[in-house]
User: Fold these one by one.
Assistant:
Number 1:
Amino acid sequence: MPPGRGSSMLLAGKNALVTGASRGIGAAIVAAFAAEGANVWALARTRSEAFEATLAGLAAAHGVWLKPLYADVSDPAAVSAAIRLAMTDKQPLDILVNNAGAMAQDKPFQLTALEEMEALFRVNFFGAVQLSQLATRWMARKGRGAVVNLASIAGINGGSRLDYSASKAAIISATKTMARELAPLGIRVNAVAPGFIQTDMTQALGQQVQADTIAKTLLRRAGTPEDVAQAVTFLASDRAAYITAQIWGVDGGML
Ligand code: NAP
């Protein structure tokens, strides 16, 4: 059914901006949003014909528009330019998903240079904060909006890589502060904290770490990008109208 009045689709007629849209959880969020009737500016780091073909296929399948945007989220000038380009479409923005993220190198914090930690924070934290600043100014024109940040269970429990865990803890804290500041403007801000999700990021962890992590998960399986995308879709939708400042674990039960 095409989006519009009377549609039962969760995001019918909404316009969303999703970062890290090229693969993994971000690609699943774009697909889930399109299937629920949302138009999407899909932000990727690198221009790619395959990415643009995927967007065109989803747009045709679901009767929505999906437009590529390109920026390295750690480059403030590139992020500003991407948002300015999206704004030339003269559409309101309803939803921002800060999904783009990078994993830290596997080494003790004693051996991690501050420059490396700073570089990771530029992607995982400052990129998301800058996008949130620009996007929520745009949303505020309409007096409504929803931001969903991708945190991590590592940001709650502390993980083995200090810079990654700390960057996600910072996103959790920022989610609550943004929610407080933006509530009077009609903008909700929440985060999901995935556990162990099967993507390129976790493939890099190695077989033993993957098996050990699944053994500690109540549901005894790795999550899929679609598992995370469903939670993000709900939090972005009007069905979550009374939910803000929350951090939702999507982790199969990691106690
Ligand atoms: P992924 O498969 O490694 O994909 C990461 C995405 O982020 C890619 O689209 C990548 O673009 C983009 N990205 C990375 N650095 C970027 C930069 N500087 N500028 C723009 N885009 C950049 O990771 P994922 O597993 O889907 O993770 C998505 C989010 O979920 C991340 O924030 C991650 O920390 C979080 N998360 C994941 C898990 C998990 O188990 N997988 C658990 C907890 C939290 P390119 O294609 O250009 O590299």
Number 2:
Amino acid sequence: MKKSKKLVVGNWKMNPQSLDEAKKLAQAVKRATRGLKKTDVVVCPPFVFLSPLTSLSDSPFFLGAQNANYEAQGPFTGEVSYTELSDFKVDYVIVGHSERRKMGESDDLINKKVRAVVGGGMIAILCVGEEARDSNGDFYNFIKHQITSGLKDVSKKMLDRVVVAYEPLWAIGARESMSPRDLLETSIFIKKVLKDLCGTFSDSMKILYGGDVDRVNADSLVRDGNVSGLLVGRESLRSKDFIEIIKLVDSI
Ligand code: 13P
């Protein structure tokens, strides 16, 4: 069976401050992706920078959005719909990032977004992760609940358009990533949850890790944590570091 490609995603969040910087960063990353054989790379800029960057999108370099409205159109001031995104070469959408869940996004809303994004022909990066780890392992139920509700009523045939990004909240924006050993346990757990839920369709689903990823821990997180790739925040804004992470992942 052909080994599926790794995936490295850069979530720029509300950065950078100008279109000029956004272009420079995206162009540098794109240049570095030439010749990659085993890895796809996605950058997710703020909405305003997506349109001027679409001309760069060409495999293995893709564009992603950080959010999408599940309605195709209508009176939703300030929102951007999944149809508007898919119309201009956006291939991935981050859904249910913890920073958006904190702003009030419910499991139900996140599920609607997942269904809209995959139905619109794009790939949904469904973010899940616990706030804290307790010693009795309750956080596993929490992760399971987020995955189950996020994938509710998603047709099995569409599951190859869903990527699960595991991002423990305590590691996001921190100087404390998860240990590869703990990540391995969690990735095994997530694979089991997906298998129970989706049967063999889960075989095509990728699991990413996010939370304080840098060029020092990237290799071990992917290799020893046994995940398909990474969702990178801060380090995706520094082209040199992000490119190093991409190359490390591609060499695994
Ligand atoms: P950091 O890599 O800055 O910890 O952010 C992770 C993240 O939230 C990616 O979506």
